[in-house]
Design a protein that fits this description.
Elements: H1 6-17, E1 38-42, H2 44-47, H3 75-83, H4 86-89, E2 94-97, E3 101-103, E4 108-110, E5 113-115, E6 123-129, H5 136-148, E7 152-157, E8 177-178, H6 189-192, E9 202-203, H7 215-223, H8 227-241, H9 247-262, E10 266-269, H10 277-297, E11 309-312, E12 325-326, E13 331-332, E14 341-344, H11 347-350, H12 355-366, E15 374-378, H13 395-403, E16 408-412, H14 438-442, E17 446-447, E18 450-451, H15 452-468, H16 471-474, E19 476-481, E20 485-492, E21 497-504, E22 509-514, E23 524-527, E24 533-535, E25 540-545, E26 550-553
Parallel strand pairs: 1-2, 1-16, 2-7, 7-10, 10-11, 11-14, 14-15, 15-16
Antiparallel strand pairs: 3-6, 4-5, 8-9, 12-13, 17-18, 19-20, 20-21, 21-26, 22-25, 23-24, 23-26
Helix pairs in contact: 1-5, 3-5, 9-10, 13-15
Length: 554
Protein backbone atom coordinates (compact mmCIF):
# COMPACT_ATOMS: atom_id res chain seq x y z
CA UNK A 1 0.00 0.00 0.00
CA UNK A 2 2.74 2.46 0.88
CA UNK A 3 5.92 2.98 -1.10
CA UNK A 4 8.22 5.87 -0.32
CA UNK A 5 10.54 7.59 -2.78
CA UNK A 6 14.02 8.65 -1.66
CA UNK A 7 12.85 12.26 -1.39
CA UNK A 8 9.85 11.29 0.68
CA UNK A 9 11.99 9.12 2.93
CA UNK A 10 14.33 12.04 3.61
CA UNK A 11 11.36 14.28 4.32
CA UNK A 12 9.94 11.84 6.85
CA UNK A 13 13.36 11.43 8.41
CA UNK A 14 13.50 15.19 8.82
CA UNK A 15 10.11 15.19 10.57
CA UNK A 16 11.21 12.44 12.94
CA UNK A 17 14.51 14.04 13.82
CA UNK A 18 13.69 17.74 13.99
CA UNK A 19 12.41 19.41 17.10
CA UNK A 20 11.92 18.04 20.59
CA UNK A 21 10.61 14.53 20.96
CA UNK A 22 7.37 13.96 22.82
CA UNK A 23 8.57 11.75 25.63
CA UNK A 24 6.56 8.96 27.13
CA UNK A 25 4.37 10.00 30.01
CA UNK A 26 6.42 9.90 33.20
CA UNK A 27 5.26 8.85 36.63
CA UNK A 28 3.34 11.57 38.43
CA UNK A 29 2.37 13.56 35.33
CA UNK A 30 -1.23 14.14 34.32
CA UNK A 31 -2.36 11.09 32.34
CA UNK A 32 -4.30 11.26 29.12
CA UNK A 33 -7.64 9.49 29.49
CA UNK A 34 -9.99 8.86 26.58
CA UNK A 35 -12.82 9.22 29.11
CA UNK A 36 -11.81 12.89 29.46
CA UNK A 37 -10.84 13.54 25.84
CA UNK A 38 -11.45 16.96 24.34
CA UNK A 39 -11.82 15.83 20.74
CA UNK A 40 -11.96 18.29 17.84
CA UNK A 41 -13.93 17.07 14.81
CA UNK A 42 -13.56 18.76 11.44
CA UNK A 43 -14.37 18.21 7.78
CA UNK A 44 -10.98 18.02 6.10
CA UNK A 45 -12.23 19.97 3.06
CA UNK A 46 -13.89 22.70 5.12
CA UNK A 47 -11.35 23.66 7.76
CA UNK A 48 -8.26 25.31 6.31
CA UNK A 49 -6.65 25.40 2.86
CA UNK A 50 -2.95 24.79 3.34
CA UNK A 51 -2.13 23.98 -0.29
CA UNK A 52 -4.23 25.71 -2.99
CA UNK A 53 -2.31 23.78 -5.65
CA UNK A 54 -4.29 20.60 -4.85
CA UNK A 55 -7.74 22.16 -4.95
CA UNK A 56 -8.81 20.54 -8.26
CA UNK A 57 -8.18 16.93 -9.26
CA UNK A 58 -9.75 14.36 -11.59
CA UNK A 59 -11.59 17.06 -13.53
CA UNK A 60 -13.85 17.93 -10.63
CA UNK A 61 -14.83 21.26 -12.13
CA UNK A 62 -18.61 20.95 -12.67
CA UNK A 63 -20.81 23.39 -10.80
CA UNK A 64 -22.00 21.76 -7.59
CA UNK A 65 -24.99 22.62 -5.44
CA UNK A 66 -24.45 25.05 -2.56
CA UNK A 67 -21.76 23.68 -0.20
CA UNK A 68 -21.64 20.33 -2.05
CA UNK A 69 -18.39 20.72 -3.94
CA UNK A 70 -14.74 20.72 -2.88
CA UNK A 71 -13.68 24.00 -1.24
CA UNK A 72 -9.93 23.46 -0.76
CA UNK A 73 -9.45 22.39 2.84
CA UNK A 74 -6.72 19.79 3.23
CA UNK A 75 -4.32 17.95 5.52
CA UNK A 76 -1.72 20.71 5.17
CA UNK A 77 -4.28 23.18 6.42
CA UNK A 78 -4.91 21.13 9.56
CA UNK A 79 -1.17 20.89 10.19
CA UNK A 80 -0.81 24.65 9.87
CA UNK A 81 -3.32 25.12 12.69
CA UNK A 82 -1.49 22.51 14.79
CA UNK A 83 1.74 24.47 14.32
CA UNK A 84 -0.02 27.76 15.07
CA UNK A 85 -1.09 26.37 18.45
CA UNK A 86 -4.80 26.73 17.69
CA UNK A 87 -5.64 23.35 19.17
CA UNK A 88 -3.31 23.82 22.14
CA UNK A 89 -5.14 27.01 23.09
CA UNK A 90 -8.43 25.08 22.94
CA UNK A 91 -7.08 22.31 25.16
CA UNK A 92 -7.67 19.76 22.41
CA UNK A 93 -6.28 16.32 23.19
CA UNK A 94 -7.55 14.37 20.17
CA UNK A 95 -8.20 15.34 16.57
CA UNK A 96 -10.76 13.58 14.36
CA UNK A 97 -11.09 14.53 10.72
CA UNK A 98 -13.27 13.12 7.96
CA UNK A 99 -11.86 10.31 5.77
CA UNK A 100 -8.99 11.23 3.48
CA UNK A 101 -8.91 8.11 1.26
CA UNK A 102 -9.42 8.56 -2.47
CA UNK A 103 -13.01 9.50 -3.27
CA UNK A 104 -15.06 8.80 -6.38
CA UNK A 105 -13.85 11.05 -9.18
CA UNK A 106 -17.21 12.06 -10.57
CA UNK A 107 -20.15 13.95 -9.10
CA UNK A 108 -23.60 12.56 -8.43
CA UNK A 109 -26.86 14.35 -9.01
CA UNK A 110 -29.13 14.31 -6.01
CA UNK A 111 -32.35 16.11 -5.16
CA UNK A 112 -30.39 19.16 -4.05
CA UNK A 113 -28.15 19.19 -7.15
CA UNK A 114 -24.67 17.95 -8.02
CA UNK A 115 -22.50 16.66 -5.18
CA UNK A 116 -18.84 15.63 -5.05
CA UNK A 117 -17.26 13.42 -2.37
CA UNK A 118 -15.74 16.37 -0.50
CA UNK A 119 -16.88 14.85 2.81
CA UNK A 120 -14.71 11.74 2.47
CA UNK A 121 -17.40 9.07 2.90
CA UNK A 122 -17.50 7.95 -0.76
CA UNK A 123 -14.42 5.74 -1.07
CA UNK A 124 -13.13 4.70 -4.47
CA UNK A 125 -9.76 3.33 -3.31
CA UNK A 126 -9.01 2.71 0.37
CA UNK A 127 -5.30 2.27 -0.38
CA UNK A 128 -4.58 5.81 -1.54
CA UNK A 129 -5.15 9.32 -0.23
CA UNK A 130 -7.28 11.62 -2.30
CA UNK A 131 -5.01 14.31 -3.80
CA UNK A 132 -7.60 16.95 -2.93
CA UNK A 133 -6.80 16.20 0.71
CA UNK A 134 -3.05 15.75 0.35
CA UNK A 135 -0.23 13.25 0.16
CA UNK A 136 1.23 10.49 2.31
CA UNK A 137 3.97 12.91 3.35
CA UNK A 138 1.31 15.41 4.42
CA UNK A 139 -0.41 12.82 6.60
CA UNK A 140 2.86 11.68 8.12
CA UNK A 141 3.72 15.28 8.98
CA UNK A 142 0.30 15.90 10.53
CA UNK A 143 0.45 12.86 12.81
CA UNK A 144 4.01 13.61 13.83
CA UNK A 145 3.39 17.25 14.68
CA UNK A 146 0.15 16.46 16.50
CA UNK A 147 1.88 13.81 18.59
CA UNK A 148 4.64 16.25 19.52
CA UNK A 149 1.95 18.37 21.17
CA UNK A 150 0.26 15.45 22.88
CA UNK A 151 -2.68 15.44 20.46
CA UNK A 152 -3.95 12.00 19.44
CA UNK A 153 -5.17 11.34 15.89
CA UNK A 154 -8.48 9.59 15.25
CA UNK A 155 -9.11 8.49 11.67
CA UNK A 156 -12.66 8.38 10.38
CA UNK A 157 -13.10 4.98 8.72
CA UNK A 158 -15.83 3.43 6.57
CA UNK A 159 -16.42 -0.29 6.03
CA UNK A 160 -20.14 -0.23 5.30
CA UNK A 161 -20.16 1.09 1.74
CA UNK A 162 -18.21 2.25 -1.29
CA UNK A 163 -18.86 5.53 -3.05
CA UNK A 164 -21.78 5.86 -5.46
CA UNK A 165 -21.48 4.45 -8.97
CA UNK A 166 -20.96 6.98 -11.77
CA UNK A 167 -19.67 6.87 -15.35
CA UNK A 168 -16.15 7.33 -14.02
CA UNK A 169 -16.65 5.16 -10.93
CA UNK A 170 -18.06 1.74 -11.81
CA UNK A 171 -19.97 -0.25 -9.22
CA UNK A 172 -17.91 -2.91 -7.45
CA UNK A 173 -18.63 -6.56 -8.41
CA UNK A 174 -21.80 -8.25 -7.17
CA UNK A 175 -19.88 -10.56 -4.83
CA UNK A 176 -18.50 -7.43 -3.11
CA UNK A 177 -21.58 -5.23 -2.82
CA UNK A 178 -25.35 -5.16 -2.93
CA UNK A 179 -27.21 -2.33 -4.61
CA UNK A 180 -30.54 -2.99 -2.88
CA UNK A 181 -32.83 -3.13 -1.06
CA UNK A 182 -32.76 0.20 0.73
CA UNK A 183 -32.76 0.06 4.53
CA UNK A 184 -36.18 0.24 6.18
CA UNK A 185 -34.95 0.08 9.80
CA UNK A 186 -37.68 -2.34 10.83
CA UNK A 187 -35.21 -4.63 12.54
CA UNK A 188 -31.62 -5.85 12.60
CA UNK A 189 -31.45 -7.27 9.07
CA UNK A 190 -33.25 -4.34 7.43
CA UNK A 191 -30.69 -2.02 9.02
CA UNK A 192 -27.59 -3.97 8.01
CA UNK A 193 -28.13 -6.00 4.83
CA UNK A 194 -29.31 -3.03 2.79
CA UNK A 195 -28.19 0.26 1.24
CA UNK A 196 -28.41 3.46 3.24
CA UNK A 197 -29.66 5.40 0.24
CA UNK A 198 -30.13 4.76 -3.45
CA UNK A 199 -26.85 4.29 -5.35
CA UNK A 200 -24.66 3.79 -2.31
CA UNK A 201 -23.45 0.18 -2.78
CA UNK A 202 -23.39 -1.75 0.49
CA UNK A 203 -20.36 -3.93 1.23
CA UNK A 204 -21.34 -7.55 1.93
CA UNK A 205 -19.71 -7.48 5.34
CA UNK A 206 -21.60 -10.61 6.38
CA UNK A 207 -19.96 -12.75 3.71
CA UNK A 208 -17.05 -15.12 4.31
CA UNK A 209 -16.84 -16.09 0.65
CA UNK A 210 -13.49 -15.37 -1.01
CA UNK A 211 -13.70 -12.73 -3.74
CA UNK A 212 -11.38 -11.47 -6.43
CA UNK A 213 -10.28 -7.85 -6.47
CA UNK A 214 -12.44 -5.60 -8.66
CA UNK A 215 -11.04 -5.38 -12.20
CA UNK A 216 -11.31 -1.60 -12.17
CA UNK A 217 -9.20 -1.44 -9.00
CA UNK A 218 -6.57 -3.77 -10.45
CA UNK A 219 -6.37 -1.69 -13.60
CA UNK A 220 -6.07 1.49 -11.54
CA UNK A 221 -3.20 0.07 -9.48
CA UNK A 222 -1.49 -1.08 -12.68
CA UNK A 223 -1.67 2.40 -14.20
CA UNK A 224 -0.29 3.87 -11.01
CA UNK A 225 2.62 1.42 -11.01
CA UNK A 226 1.81 -0.29 -7.71
CA UNK A 227 -0.09 -3.43 -8.67
CA UNK A 228 2.64 -5.90 -7.68
CA UNK A 229 3.24 -4.16 -4.35
CA UNK A 230 -0.45 -4.12 -3.42
CA UNK A 231 -0.91 -7.79 -4.32
CA UNK A 232 2.19 -8.84 -2.39
CA UNK A 233 0.98 -7.00 0.71
CA UNK A 234 -2.43 -8.64 0.48
CA UNK A 235 -0.85 -12.07 0.11
CA UNK A 236 1.24 -11.45 3.23
CA UNK A 237 -1.79 -10.21 5.19
CA UNK A 238 -4.00 -13.18 4.38
CA UNK A 239 -1.16 -15.62 4.98
CA UNK A 240 -0.45 -14.11 8.40
CA UNK A 241 -4.06 -13.91 9.53
CA UNK A 242 -5.63 -16.94 7.88
CA UNK A 243 -8.73 -14.88 7.10
CA UNK A 244 -10.78 -15.75 4.03
CA UNK A 245 -10.39 -13.25 1.20
CA UNK A 246 -13.84 -11.88 1.93
CA UNK A 247 -14.71 -8.22 1.27
CA UNK A 248 -14.47 -6.97 4.86
CA UNK A 249 -11.02 -8.41 5.42
CA UNK A 250 -9.57 -6.59 2.41
CA UNK A 251 -10.90 -3.33 3.82
CA UNK A 252 -9.65 -4.15 7.32
CA UNK A 253 -6.20 -4.70 5.87
CA UNK A 254 -6.29 -1.41 4.00
CA UNK A 255 -7.52 0.58 7.00
CA UNK A 256 -5.03 -0.86 9.48
CA UNK A 257 -2.17 0.00 7.13
CA UNK A 258 -2.65 3.63 8.17
CA UNK A 259 -2.15 2.65 11.81
CA UNK A 260 0.98 0.62 11.12
CA UNK A 261 2.48 3.28 8.85
CA UNK A 262 1.65 6.49 10.70
CA UNK A 263 0.84 5.55 14.29
CA UNK A 264 -2.66 6.99 14.35
CA UNK A 265 -4.21 6.43 17.76
CA UNK A 266 -7.79 5.47 17.02
CA UNK A 267 -10.76 5.17 14.69
CA UNK A 268 -14.12 6.83 14.55
CA UNK A 269 -16.21 4.11 12.91
CA UNK A 270 -18.77 5.44 10.49
CA UNK A 271 -22.27 3.92 10.16
CA UNK A 272 -21.42 1.40 12.87
CA UNK A 273 -24.95 0.05 13.31
CA UNK A 274 -25.15 -0.78 9.59
CA UNK A 275 -22.39 -3.39 9.91
CA UNK A 276 -22.51 -6.67 11.84
CA UNK A 277 -21.17 -5.78 15.27
CA UNK A 278 -18.58 -8.59 15.17
CA UNK A 279 -16.85 -6.88 12.24
CA UNK A 280 -15.78 -4.07 14.54
CA UNK A 281 -14.13 -6.54 16.88
CA UNK A 282 -12.25 -7.96 13.90
CA UNK A 283 -11.14 -4.47 12.89
CA UNK A 284 -9.99 -3.68 16.43
CA UNK A 285 -7.96 -6.89 16.65
CA UNK A 286 -5.96 -5.99 13.54
CA UNK A 287 -5.69 -2.33 14.52
CA UNK A 288 -4.23 -3.29 17.90
CA UNK A 289 -1.64 -5.48 16.18
CA UNK A 290 -0.79 -2.64 13.79
CA UNK A 291 -0.55 -0.13 16.65
CA UNK A 292 1.78 -2.42 18.59
CA UNK A 293 3.91 -2.85 15.47
CA UNK A 294 4.17 0.92 15.06
CA UNK A 295 5.15 1.38 18.69
CA UNK A 296 7.90 -1.22 18.36
CA UNK A 297 9.38 0.54 15.34
CA UNK A 298 8.95 4.07 16.76
CA UNK A 299 9.81 3.77 20.47
CA UNK A 300 10.83 7.42 20.80
CA UNK A 301 7.46 8.60 19.47
CA UNK A 302 5.20 6.56 21.75
CA UNK A 303 3.01 8.86 23.83
CA UNK A 304 1.87 6.44 26.52
CA UNK A 305 0.59 2.94 27.18
CA UNK A 306 -2.97 3.57 26.01
CA UNK A 307 -4.31 0.90 23.71
CA UNK A 308 -5.82 1.60 20.33
CA UNK A 309 -9.06 3.56 20.65
CA UNK A 310 -12.38 3.13 18.82
CA UNK A 311 -15.54 5.22 19.00
CA UNK A 312 -18.63 4.16 17.11
CA UNK A 313 -21.29 6.12 15.30
CA UNK A 314 -24.26 3.96 16.23
CA UNK A 315 -26.78 6.45 14.94
CA UNK A 316 -29.35 7.43 17.60
CA UNK A 317 -27.53 5.63 20.43
CA UNK A 318 -28.45 7.33 23.71
CA UNK A 319 -26.51 7.17 26.96
CA UNK A 320 -29.72 6.29 28.83
CA UNK A 321 -29.76 2.97 26.98
CA UNK A 322 -26.60 1.92 28.83
CA UNK A 323 -24.71 -0.79 27.02
CA UNK A 324 -27.49 -1.91 24.67
CA UNK A 325 -28.71 -0.56 21.36
CA UNK A 326 -32.20 -1.71 20.39
CA UNK A 327 -32.82 -2.60 16.72
CA UNK A 328 -36.41 -3.46 17.55
CA UNK A 329 -36.03 -7.21 17.15
CA UNK A 330 -32.58 -7.48 18.71
CA UNK A 331 -30.50 -5.65 21.30
CA UNK A 332 -26.77 -5.39 20.69
CA UNK A 333 -23.92 -4.49 23.05
CA UNK A 334 -21.54 -2.64 20.72
CA UNK A 335 -19.25 -1.95 23.65
CA UNK A 336 -18.62 -5.69 23.81
CA UNK A 337 -17.25 -5.58 20.27
CA UNK A 338 -14.24 -3.41 21.07
CA UNK A 339 -15.64 0.12 21.27
CA UNK A 340 -14.24 2.32 24.02
CA UNK A 341 -17.00 4.83 23.44
CA UNK A 342 -20.12 5.47 21.39
CA UNK A 343 -21.23 8.85 20.11
CA UNK A 344 -24.03 10.01 22.38
CA UNK A 345 -26.99 11.39 20.44
CA UNK A 346 -28.84 12.19 23.66
CA UNK A 347 -26.62 14.99 24.91
CA UNK A 348 -28.05 17.65 22.60
CA UNK A 349 -31.40 17.11 24.32
CA UNK A 350 -29.98 16.82 27.82
CA UNK A 351 -28.22 20.14 27.27
CA UNK A 352 -31.65 21.76 27.47
CA UNK A 353 -31.83 20.73 31.15
CA UNK A 354 -30.10 22.28 34.12
CA UNK A 355 -26.42 21.75 34.63
CA UNK A 356 -27.00 19.61 37.70
CA UNK A 357 -29.66 17.42 36.08
CA UNK A 358 -27.33 16.61 33.20
CA UNK A 359 -24.07 16.33 35.13
CA UNK A 360 -25.44 14.07 37.86
CA UNK A 361 -27.22 11.85 35.34
CA UNK A 362 -24.08 11.34 33.26
CA UNK A 363 -21.85 10.74 36.26
CA UNK A 364 -24.24 8.08 37.54
CA UNK A 365 -24.42 6.26 34.22
CA UNK A 366 -20.71 6.48 33.40
CA UNK A 367 -19.72 5.14 36.82
CA UNK A 368 -22.59 2.66 36.88
CA UNK A 369 -23.90 0.79 33.83
CA UNK A 370 -21.11 2.12 31.60
CA UNK A 371 -18.21 1.76 34.04
CA UNK A 372 -15.04 1.07 32.08
CA UNK A 373 -16.57 2.45 28.87
CA UNK A 374 -17.77 5.89 27.86
CA UNK A 375 -19.60 8.24 25.55
CA UNK A 376 -18.60 11.06 23.23
CA UNK A 377 -20.95 14.01 23.74
CA UNK A 378 -21.64 16.70 21.15
CA UNK A 379 -23.84 19.74 20.61
CA UNK A 380 -23.57 19.82 16.80
CA UNK A 381 -22.14 17.63 14.04
CA UNK A 382 -21.87 17.23 10.28
CA UNK A 383 -25.10 15.29 9.81
CA UNK A 384 -27.41 16.08 12.74
CA UNK A 385 -30.02 18.51 11.51
CA UNK A 386 -31.38 19.09 15.02
CA UNK A 387 -28.36 20.12 17.11
CA UNK A 388 -28.43 22.02 20.37
CA UNK A 389 -28.69 25.75 19.61
CA UNK A 390 -28.66 25.53 15.81
CA UNK A 391 -29.20 29.30 15.62
CA UNK A 392 -26.05 29.89 17.73
CA UNK A 393 -27.98 31.97 20.24
CA UNK A 394 -26.27 30.32 23.25
CA UNK A 395 -22.62 29.66 22.30
CA UNK A 396 -21.34 30.39 25.81
CA UNK A 397 -23.83 28.04 27.46
CA UNK A 398 -23.05 25.43 24.81
CA UNK A 399 -19.38 25.43 25.70
CA UNK A 400 -20.04 25.32 29.43
CA UNK A 401 -22.40 22.37 29.24
CA UNK A 402 -20.39 20.35 26.74
CA UNK A 403 -16.90 20.84 28.16
CA UNK A 404 -17.87 20.49 31.81
CA UNK A 405 -20.11 17.44 31.35
CA UNK A 406 -18.87 14.01 32.46
CA UNK A 407 -17.78 11.94 29.46
CA UNK A 408 -15.62 12.81 26.48
CA UNK A 409 -16.40 15.98 24.51
CA UNK A 410 -16.60 16.40 20.73
CA UNK A 411 -16.04 19.97 19.56
CA UNK A 412 -17.36 20.24 16.00
CA UNK A 413 -15.31 22.77 14.06
CA UNK A 414 -16.84 26.21 14.57
CA UNK A 415 -18.68 25.37 17.78
CA UNK A 416 -15.99 27.42 19.45
CA UNK A 417 -16.43 30.37 17.07
CA UNK A 418 -20.23 30.30 16.66
CA UNK A 419 -19.87 29.32 12.99
CA UNK A 420 -23.30 29.60 11.41
CA UNK A 421 -25.21 26.35 10.89
CA UNK A 422 -27.89 28.04 8.79
CA UNK A 423 -26.60 28.85 5.31
CA UNK A 424 -29.15 30.23 2.80
CA UNK A 425 -29.34 28.06 -0.32
CA UNK A 426 -27.71 25.02 1.29
CA UNK A 427 -29.97 21.99 1.42
CA UNK A 428 -30.01 19.21 4.02
CA UNK A 429 -26.81 18.53 5.92
CA UNK A 430 -24.85 20.87 3.63
CA UNK A 431 -25.95 23.78 5.82
CA UNK A 432 -23.92 22.25 8.66
CA UNK A 433 -20.76 22.10 6.54
CA UNK A 434 -19.74 25.64 5.66
CA UNK A 435 -16.07 26.62 5.57
CA UNK A 436 -14.55 27.44 8.95
CA UNK A 437 -15.29 31.07 9.81
CA UNK A 438 -11.71 32.28 10.10
CA UNK A 439 -12.77 35.51 8.37
CA UNK A 440 -15.27 36.31 11.12
CA UNK A 441 -12.64 35.67 13.75
CA UNK A 442 -10.17 37.95 11.99
CA UNK A 443 -12.80 40.68 11.53
CA UNK A 444 -13.87 40.53 15.19
CA UNK A 445 -17.42 39.80 14.01
CA UNK A 446 -20.49 39.45 16.20
CA UNK A 447 -23.25 36.83 15.91
CA UNK A 448 -26.46 37.16 17.88
CA UNK A 449 -24.89 39.58 20.32
CA UNK A 450 -21.78 37.48 20.95
CA UNK A 451 -18.36 38.51 19.71
CA UNK A 452 -16.82 35.52 17.96
CA UNK A 453 -13.49 36.16 19.70
CA UNK A 454 -15.17 36.17 23.12
CA UNK A 455 -16.88 32.87 22.38
CA UNK A 456 -13.54 31.38 21.38
CA UNK A 457 -11.89 32.64 24.57
CA UNK A 458 -14.60 30.98 26.67
CA UNK A 459 -14.15 27.62 24.92
CA UNK A 460 -10.37 27.92 25.23
CA UNK A 461 -10.49 28.41 28.99
CA UNK A 462 -12.86 25.50 29.53
CA UNK A 463 -10.89 23.26 27.18
CA UNK A 464 -7.56 23.92 28.85
CA UNK A 465 -9.15 23.25 32.24
CA UNK A 466 -10.48 19.90 31.00
CA UNK A 467 -7.10 19.00 29.51
CA UNK A 468 -5.26 19.81 32.75
CA UNK A 469 -7.71 17.89 34.95
CA UNK A 470 -8.90 14.37 34.04
CA UNK A 471 -11.46 14.64 36.84
CA UNK A 472 -13.58 16.95 34.67
CA UNK A 473 -14.65 14.25 32.25
CA UNK A 474 -13.62 11.07 34.06
CA UNK A 475 -14.33 11.93 37.69
CA UNK A 476 -17.32 11.32 39.94
CA UNK A 477 -19.64 14.31 40.15
CA UNK A 478 -20.92 15.68 43.46
CA UNK A 479 -22.97 18.85 43.90
CA UNK A 480 -21.64 20.95 46.80
CA UNK A 481 -24.15 23.75 46.66
CA UNK A 482 -27.37 24.32 44.70
CA UNK A 483 -27.35 28.12 45.02
CA UNK A 484 -24.84 29.29 44.12
CA UNK A 485 -24.24 26.25 41.95
CA UNK A 486 -20.95 24.62 42.95
CA UNK A 487 -19.79 21.06 42.32
CA UNK A 488 -16.73 18.91 42.60
CA UNK A 489 -15.35 16.12 40.45
CA UNK A 490 -12.97 13.53 41.86
CA UNK A 491 -10.96 11.01 39.90
CA UNK A 492 -9.02 8.20 41.55
CA UNK A 493 -6.80 5.49 40.12
CA UNK A 494 -3.94 3.49 41.54
CA UNK A 495 -1.39 5.94 40.17
CA UNK A 496 -3.18 9.25 39.94
CA UNK A 497 -5.75 11.34 41.80
CA UNK A 498 -7.34 14.58 40.72
CA UNK A 499 -10.04 16.82 42.19
CA UNK A 500 -11.61 20.01 40.90
CA UNK A 501 -14.27 22.41 42.14
CA UNK A 502 -16.39 24.43 39.72
CA UNK A 503 -18.78 27.28 40.36
CA UNK A 504 -21.28 28.48 37.74
CA UNK A 505 -23.67 31.44 37.62
CA UNK A 506 -21.76 33.13 40.41
CA UNK A 507 -21.79 36.85 41.18
CA UNK A 508 -19.23 38.90 39.34
CA UNK A 509 -16.59 40.49 41.50
CA UNK A 510 -15.57 38.94 44.82
CA UNK A 511 -16.92 35.46 45.52
CA UNK A 512 -16.22 32.91 48.23
CA UNK A 513 -16.27 29.24 47.25
CA UNK A 514 -16.71 26.74 50.06
CA UNK A 515 -14.14 24.00 49.46
CA UNK A 516 -14.04 22.58 52.99
CA UNK A 517 -13.48 18.83 52.89
CA UNK A 518 -12.24 19.05 49.32
CA UNK A 519 -9.06 21.14 49.55
CA UNK A 520 -7.06 21.65 52.75
CA UNK A 521 -6.37 25.05 54.24
CA UNK A 522 -3.17 26.41 52.78
CA UNK A 523 -3.66 24.64 49.45
CA UNK A 524 -2.73 26.78 46.45
CA UNK A 525 -5.40 26.59 43.74
CA UNK A 526 -5.59 28.02 40.28
CA UNK A 527 -8.77 29.51 38.89
CA UNK A 528 -8.44 28.45 35.28
CA UNK A 529 -11.04 30.97 34.16
CA UNK A 530 -9.58 34.20 35.56
CA UNK A 531 -6.00 32.96 35.73
CA UNK A 532 -5.72 33.85 39.43
CA UNK A 533 -3.97 31.78 42.04
CA UNK A 534 -5.67 31.64 45.44
CA UNK A 535 -4.89 30.02 48.77
CA UNK A 536 -7.53 28.15 50.71
CA UNK A 537 -8.22 29.69 54.13
CA UNK A 538 -11.01 28.85 56.55
CA UNK A 539 -12.25 26.23 54.14
CA UNK A 540 -12.87 28.81 51.44
CA UNK A 541 -11.29 29.92 48.19
CA UNK A 542 -11.85 33.63 47.49
CA UNK A 543 -11.78 34.74 43.87
CA UNK A 544 -12.21 38.36 42.80
CA UNK A 545 -12.88 38.45 39.08
CA UNK A 546 -15.15 39.97 36.47
CA UNK A 547 -16.50 36.53 35.58
CA UNK A 548 -19.40 34.43 36.87
CA UNK A 549 -17.45 31.18 36.50
CA UNK A 550 -14.74 29.70 38.72
CA UNK A 551 -12.69 26.65 37.70
CA UNK A 552 -10.55 25.53 40.61
CA UNK A 553 -7.82 22.91 40.57
CA UNK A 554 -4.30 22.39 41.82
Amino acid sequence: MFRFSAALYLLLLLFSCSGPKKAQQSAGTTPFLWENANMYFLLTDRFNNGNPANDVNFGRTAQAAKLRGFMGGDIKGITQKIEDGYFDKLGITALWFTPVVEQIHDKVDEGTGATYGFHGYWAKDWTRLDPNFGTEADLAELVDKAHRRGIRIVLDVVINHTGPATEQDPVWPADWVRTGPQCTYKGYESTIECTLVKNLPDIKTESNNPVQLPPALLEKWKKEGRLDQELAELDAFFQRTGYPRAPRFYIIKWLTDYVRQYGVDGYRCDTAKHVEETVWAELLKEAQIAFADWKKTHPDQVLDNNKFYMVGEVYNYNISAGRLFDFGDRKVDFYNQGFNQLINFEFKGDAQNTHEATFSKYSGLLHGQLAGKGVLNYISSHDDGGPFDKERMKPIESGTKLLLCPGAAQVYYGDETARSLIIPGAGGDATLRSFMNWDELADNSTRNGHRVADVLTHWQKLGRFRKAHPAVGAGVHTMLSASPYVFKRAYRSRKFTDTVVVGLDLPKGKKEINVQGVFANGAALQDYYSGQTVTVAGGKAVVDSAFDIVLLGK
